[in-house]
Specification:
This protein is an alpha/beta fold. The protein contains three helices and twelve strands; from the N terminus they run αααββββββββββββ. A seven-stranded mixed sheet has the order 2-3-5-6-7-9-11, with no helix packed on it. Bound molecules: 2-acetamido-2-deoxy-beta-D-glucopyranose (NAG) (9 copies).
């Protein structure tokens, strides 16, 4: 047997070759877990104007899936990841799937000005890279998940003009990177947590037209960055 033949027939050679192949084909692909998540998101939405008709074929990061914006290079795991989901003003109804929580590298979740119903999934709290959570102008109900209060990079939460009920979670006092709380025109109830006063970066605190009760905590006057309440 010549050396070449021996190499071609040997198992390790094919193992190395197929590893190389996986590496090369991964180079421009969205992580499979995120492809599954996107399909789950589409499945729970109702899309009468067929804005998402091109979702489902090809790679979502190949600029063909409307509203899906990916990182432009692969991360250390060798895959692309979703950076933004931009689904504003698309006449979407239906619900927001918990699968959204599996887009764990996402910075912007934007579904503003649709007709989405149901509640905000707890799983949104798994998107630790999230900076902008833009859900305003829908028909969301249910209460605010505690888990959102632990998002370490959240810059802005806009849930205004929905029908969200229940209290403002005390956990929101952990959102020390957040500049904007837009929560007006919902059905939030209970007291404004005095713990919110320790938020160092909060600039806008919009809570009008809700069903809040109790005292306005005195401590809110000491918020260092607040401009509009
Ligand atoms: C991306 O789309 C282009 C053409 O639109 C195609 O040639 C290419 O093979 C696609 N790449 C992947 C990874 O799907
Ligand atoms: C890749 O993304 C970065 C950060 O978003 C951006 O600054 C850069 O211009 C992008 N590169 C290309 C080739 O699009
Ligand atoms: C889409 O939504 C806009 C704003 O809500 C509305 O004016 C328009 O009639 C809707 N279009 C369709 C075809 O449902
Ligand atoms: C998120 O991904 C994990 C791992 O693939 C999967 O087990 C889980 O069902 C997914 N969650 C949702 C809500 O789809
Ligand atoms: C995602 O969020 C859900 C609900 O908050 C939680 O039960 C689950 O453990 C989280 N998964 C991960 C991987 O963090
Ligand atoms: C909003 O929620 C409140 C309390 O859950 C409920 O009483 C009310 O009917 C809802 N309003 C709309 C427009 O859905
Ligand atoms: C926010 O809180 C975290 C955890 O307590 C801390 O590590 C971080 O330095 C804080 N950031 C700011 C801007 O206060
Ligand atoms: C907010 O709620 C108030 C009081 O119910 C209402 O007058 C106003 O029109 C609402 N704003 C929007 C933009 O829905
Ligand atoms: C507002 O809260 C009161 C109790 O504090 C309750 O009786 C009422 O039903 C609530 N209204 C709405 C629209 O949620």
């Amino acid at each position: 047997m010549t050396g070449t033949k021996w190499l071609l027939l040997s198992v390790p050679f094919w193992v190395i070759l197929s590893c190389l192949h996986v590496q090369l084909t991964n180079a421009q692909m969205l992580h499979p877990n995120e492809v599954t998540a996107l399909n789950g998101i589409k499945k729970s939405l109702v899309d009468p104007l067929d804005h998402l008709k091109n979702w489902g074929s090809g790679d979502p990061c190949n600029k063909t899936w409307t509203g899906v914006i990916c990182y432009n290079t692969t991360l250390r795991d060798g895959y692309l990841h979703v950076l933004e989901l931009q689904l504003l003003k698309m006449n979407l109804s239906g619900t927001l799937s918990p699968a959204v929580g599996n887009l764990t590298y996402m910075n912007i979740l934007d579904v503003m000005w649709n007709k989405i119903t149901g509640s905000i999934p707890d799983e949104v709290g798994n998107i630790t890279s999230l900076k902008l959570l833009l859900l305003n102008g829908n028909q969301l109900s249910g209460s605010l998940p505690d888990s959102i209060g632990y998002l370490p990079n959240l810059d802005r939460i806009q849930i205004d003009q929905n029908n969200i009920s229940g209290p403002i979670p005390k956990s929101f006092a952990n959102l020390n990177m957040t500049k904007h709380f837009h929560m007006n025109n919902n059905s939030l109830s209970g007291q404004i947590p005095r713990e919110l006063s320790r938020l160092p970066k909060l600039v806008h605190l919009l809570l009008d037209n809700n069903n809040l009760s109790g005292d306005l905590p005195e401590e809110l006057s000491e918020m260092p960055s607040l401009l509009i309440m």
